[in-house]
Each structure stands twice: as structure tokens, then as C-alpha cells.
């Protein structure tokens, strides 16, 4: 049994086809198929049921996948021992957020010997990186409604999600925004405002997620840059939906309560069910908890 066989097998499971695995591994589909067939012959097991449109993993394959993923992860850790010079890993994937980036920077400020990897992306991207052992922690900001929809995916990938905190959404506006002095805004009125929204495929606290229908706002600004979002909001060009724990108390943005809104925004911690965290990663989780309301 060779590590290459396990790598081809695990990649084929993750991507759902030999062709996609071949593309990801920069080889050919026949080579992937031949390599996995050799592994099946050696084990005396059928790992995949072959179909014209792809492959599906068998029950025996699922068991082998668990062990193969663990072997590949441990091999990666062994290789990293020499590469990182003894630095403790802090490997995190997070929803694009200035708040989470600031907390991470504060945690790392007085820690010199860290192997820091911090990736921002969509919920799907974060779950995939955890599943593939590219990161050990995921921090996700999403609505309760969205959280329920990801439950099955989280279980399927053998991940766990813990809600660290949740709060009602607010409308955040800059100093020159017309709603700066308003005590509250009706949820239905959100459709008349110009919002900053992430591109499709990224998590969005959009008006449609709060009022249950497509927004018809007068302006549409799309970006996944927390810095640009904050700058545009500070100048009064647009507004953004978030919650109070996302913004520091000294922030120049002003929160406006959204009336009659039953939605909640959660900060979730995602990790592998049996994944071991480094000391630095455990300290990071404890630090995040301490900073939350």
C-alpha cells in the first residue's frame, strides 16, 4: 500500500469522481482509476460503486476513508515538524470579518513562535478546508436560518459546530447617514436602502435573509472586503447589517435596531469531531470566548 494510493482514494471521495480527482491531482482519469483499482485488489475490498456519471463510496470504502484521511493528516503533521521548526500551529478559516481578523491579530501580538494560517472564505469553503485537514478551526458568522440548513452537511463531514454567541441584527450606519439619529428601523424599510453585500456564494446578512423576500434596494455594492465595507459605511455611502458583537464599542458606526425582526445572528465554532487542537489553538478558542459578550 502506498501513500499515493490513499491520496488518490481520499481525493476521489472528496470530489465525487475520478475525473475531478485527476484534475485536482494533475494526472489523468485512467491513472487515478488504475491506482484505486490496485488499492481495492490489495485490500480485497470494493471501495467505489462505479456509475456512468461518477462514483459513490461503498460502506467498506467509508471505513477505509476514515483511516486513510487520518494517515494522510498524520503524514502531513510529520512533514510539518521539520518545516515549521517547532512552531505551534494556529490554522483557522473564518467568515470575512474585520472583527474576527482584529481578534486574531490581538491574540498573535505577543506570541512569536506560531505557525499562523488564516483563511477567509464562504461557509462551504470553510467546511471543505476543515474536512480536508487544511485548517483545524472554523469561525463562521451566519443567521439561525442559515445554520439549520448547514446541519446535515456538518454531520456528513464529521464536523461539530458550537454556537459561541448570538444576537439580534442591527443596521450599522455612518455619521452622515440619514438614519443616524433613528432609534429603530422597520424590517420592511430595509428594501429602500443601499446595502453592502458579499458576492454570490459568500455568506450575506442581506435584507432578503431578514424579511423573507428579495431585496429591491436602490443601490447594490458587492464586496467580501471587511475593510472596504467599513470605509463605505463610515462615509455614509451605504449601510451594512450586523450585530453589536461584530463591532468594537469605539467604532464610528452607529447601530440602529431593526424592529419586528425575529432572526438571530450567530458566531459558530466549527472543528472536526475527533480533531486534536494544538495548545495555541485551544488558547485561541479560550481567548475568543473571553472577548464575546
TrEMBL record:
CDD domains: PBP2_LTTR_substrate. Pfam families: HTH_1 (PF00126), LysR_substrate (PF03466). Residues 1-58 form the HTH lysR-type domain. InterPro entries: LysR_HTH_N, LysR_subst-bd, WH-like_DNA-bd_sf, WH_DNA-bd_sf. GO terms for cellular component: protein-DNA complex. Coiled coil: none annotated. It comes from the Bacteria. Keywords: DNA-binding, Transcription, Transcription regulation. GO terms for molecular function: DNA binding; DNA-binding transcription factor activity. Belongs to the LysR transcriptional regulatory family. This is HTH lysR-type domain-containing protein.
Amino acid at each position: 500500500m502506498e501513500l499515493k494510493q490513499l491520496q488518490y482514494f481520499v481525493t476521489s471521495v472528496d470530489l465525487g469522481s475520478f475525473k475531478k480527482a485527476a484534475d485536482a491531482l494533475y494526472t489523468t482519469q485512467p491513472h487515478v482509476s488504475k491506482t484505486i483499482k490496485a488499492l481495492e485488489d490489495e485490500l480485497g475490498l470494493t471501495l467505489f460503486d462505479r456509475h456512468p456519471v461518477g462514483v459513490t463510496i461503498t460502506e467498506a470504502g467509508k471505513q477505509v476513508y476514515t483511516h486513510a484521511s487520518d494517515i494522510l493528516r498524520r503524514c502531513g503533521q510529520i512533514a510539518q515538524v521539520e518545516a515549521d521548526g517547532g512552531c505551534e500551529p494556529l490554522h483557522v478559516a473564518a467568515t470575512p470579518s474585520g472583527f474576527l481578523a482584529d481578534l486574531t491579530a490581538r491574540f498573535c501580538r505577543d506570541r512569536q513562535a506560531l505557525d499562523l494560517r488564516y483563511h477567509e472564505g464562504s461557509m462551504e469553503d470553510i467546511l471543505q478546508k476543515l474536512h480536508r485537514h487544511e485548517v483545524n478551526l472554523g469561525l463562521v458568522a451566519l443567521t439561525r436560518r442559515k445554520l439549520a440548513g448547514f446541519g446535515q452537511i456538518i454531520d456528513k463531514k464529521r464536523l461539530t459546530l458550537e454556537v459561541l454567541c448570538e444576537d439580534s441584527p442591527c443596521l450599522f450606519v455612518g455619521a452622515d447617514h440619514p438614519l443616524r439619529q433613528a432609534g429603530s428601523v422597520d424590517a420592511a424599510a430595509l428594501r429602500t436602502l443601499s446595502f453592502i453585500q458579499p458576492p454570490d456564494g459568500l455568506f450575506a446578512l442581506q435584507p432578503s435573509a431578514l424579511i423573507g423576500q428579495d431585496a429591491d434596494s436602490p443601490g447594490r455594492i458587492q464586496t467580501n472586503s471587511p475593510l472596504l465595507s467599513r470605509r463605505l459605511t463610515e462615509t455614509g455611502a451605504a449601510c451594512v447589517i450586523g450585530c453589536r458583537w461584530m463591532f468594537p464599542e469605539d467604532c464610528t458606526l452607529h447601530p440602529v435596531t431593526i424592529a419586528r425582526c425575529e432572526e438571530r445572528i450567530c458566531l459558530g465554532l466549527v472543528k472536526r469531531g475527533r480533531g486534536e487542537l494544538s495548545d495555541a489553538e485551544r488558547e485561541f478558542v479560550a481567548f475568543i470566548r473571553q472577548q464575546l459578550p
